[in-house]
Amino acid sequence: MLRWLHEVRWLAVGLVLATLLVYAPTFNFDFLNWDDVWYIHRNELIRSWHPANLYAIMTQPVARNFAPLTIGTFLVEHSLWQLWPGGYHVTNVLIHMVNALLVLQLLRQLTRNDWLAWMVAVLFVVHPVQVESVAWISSRKTLLSATFLLASCICWFKPQRSGRDEAWGIGWLILSLLCKAAGVVLPVIVVAYDVLVAKKKISESIARQVVPLFCCVMLILTTMNAQVTVIGGLRNHIGMSKWRILAIDLTLLWRYVGILVFPHDLCVLYDPPVEGIALMIVLAAVAWGAVGWMLWRLRKTHPLVTFAGICWLLLFLPVLNLFPLTTLMNDRYLYLPCIPFFALALGGVQTIWRWTVERVPRLTTGQNLLAAGTSALVIGLSTAGTLNYLPVWKEPLALWSYARQQLPDEPLVQKQWALTLRDLGRTDEAREVLLKTLPLVETDEPQKKSIEAILQGLDENRDGA
After folding, report:
1. pLDDT digits (tens, 9 = 90+) for 212-228
2. Are residues 162 and 117 in contact, defined by beta-carbon separation less than 8 angstroms?
3. CB atoms within 10 A of CB 205
4. Half-sphere exposure of 6 (CA within 13 A, CB side)
5. Number of Cα atoms under 13 Å in the Cβ half of residue 3
6. In the chain, how long is the greatest CA-to-CA distance?
């Protein structure tokens, strides 16, 4: 580790500084009334180290997720700084910083290309789509799971992998699964690496994944029930057939591509269309079919390209609603999939640039300066976008005020806005918002009951006053 840090010390310093430059403002951010309430404020499990609490943390889901290690970090932090939000935000930023360093190492190990590895890592740090994962305390599970998943990948993707490497890889995977279920795709990713990049027999690779697969299956069985025990989010897709969900996913994956290329109109919630999109689905299917054909053609000559494409898809698999989730689309779902996407995009740019320089010798003179300028421009634009979007996540008032601009007709957004007004003591305004929202949820019984319960609480408080 020390030798590696010495080799990449300036690259690492750049990543550390970039992380602090972009996310230091979050140290003054507040809690949000969006899962933070359940993970921190109303979570009795993190209030003491009593054995009963520790046992419950290890065995019970919290806020629809079985994530004992994540809840364990909240237990430690609650012991350190109680309900001071700054401490939790500092931890999120530090974990994001560590993840950037792990991305740097992973890409250097896979590509032997320092420029590509550093550019992917720095975009991983500063891209606006990462704001939700870093600035939202409740997204700790995404950050922490990614830490251990990236560490596991570094072990599994070594050119000459030893039994000790595999043991460490399994250990890191288990820790990742105890933070969030997203790591369940790793065994399949490792098989893809072994077959495409390491040129191993598929039977040999699958045999090495028996233990990881067993761990993943056990976690899936534990998590499936937790994900459907609490109703929330935007649920227009609940009850749809798997084929219809997959068809919608085809369009969403292209929308994610658009967000990564041109991040705009980011939001805490999205309500993508699920009706009247037959043409969009057909076009998306044809386009993804073309991408798949291209990746297949490149599997022998450029195995890392094909491998990156497979990673992009597999990292999305846990959030494609094959197992019901309460949302179809979120920025945090891109936290890890953005890595292979950036690698493919930047690798393509680098290949095109080298091809151009070979055919236009005049560009050779200033190629380093031009490349540095272009890199700085991309990083600068991403950083500016993040700094512009970051204040939206400072406090509930800012978050839901912005969300109302993006989704003015969404009942859940209006309900959260009303809760924010209530917490600020603006109860009359909160009641007015809820009364206007109630007719919009006539067919959504759980949401209707939730709004009626809030109204009843407001009325009781007013009568008591």
Report:
1. 999 999 888 887 666 55
2. no
3. 17
4. 3
5. 0
6. 82
DSSP 59-118: H--BTTB--HHHHHHHHHHHHHHTT-HHHHHHHHHHHHHHHHHHHHHHHHHHH--HHHHH
Kindly report, residue by residue over 154-206, the tens digit of the pLDDT: 999 998 899 999 999 999 999 999 999 889 999 999 999 999 999 999 999 99
Contact 128, 382 (CB under 8 A): yes
CB 93 within 8 A of CB 134: yes
Structure tokens at 259: 């967000």
Q: What are the tokens at 363? A: 């560009």
- Beta partners for residue 65, in sequence order: 62
Stronger pLDDT, 234 or 109, i.e. the higher one: 109
CA distance 212 to 175: 12
Which of 252, 251, 248, 302 shows the shortest CA–CA distance to 274?
248
Cα–Cα distance between 465 and 448 in angstroms, integer? 26
Residue owning tokens 């493919």: 344
Contact between 124 and 99 under an 8 Å Cβ cutoff? The reply is yes
Query: What's the Cα-to-Cα distance from 180 to each of 172, 312, 426, rounded to whole Å?
Result: 13, 18, 37
Burial pattern 294-327, b for ≥16 Cβ within 10 A else e, equals: ebeeeeeeebbbbbbbbbbbbbbbbbbbeeebbb
- End-to-end alpha carbon distance in the chain: 62
Residues written for the chain: 465
pLDDT tens digits, residue range 307-316? Answer: 999 999 999 9
- Condensed to tens digits (0 to 9), the pLDDT of residues 5-57 reads 777 888 999 999 999 999 999 999 999 999 999 999 999 999 999 999 999 99
| CB-based contact 328:272 (threshold 8 Å) | yes
Tell me which residue of 53, 124, 89 sits closest to 342, measured CA to CA: 124
- Say if residues 375 and 117 touch (Cβ distance below 8 Å): no
Q: Checking phi first, is residue 201 left (phi over 0); if not, alpha (psi -120 to 50) or beta?
A: beta
pLDDT at 363: 63
Predicted TM-score (pTM) of this structure: 0.93
Q: Residues near 396 by Cβ (< 8 Å), separated by ≥ 6? A: 30, 32, 33, 34, 416, 419, 420, 423
User: Is 10 exposed, middle or buried, given 0-12, 13-18 or 19+ CB atoms closer than 10 A?
Assistant: exposed
What is d(CA 26, CA 83) in angstroms, rounded to the nearest whole number?
A: 15
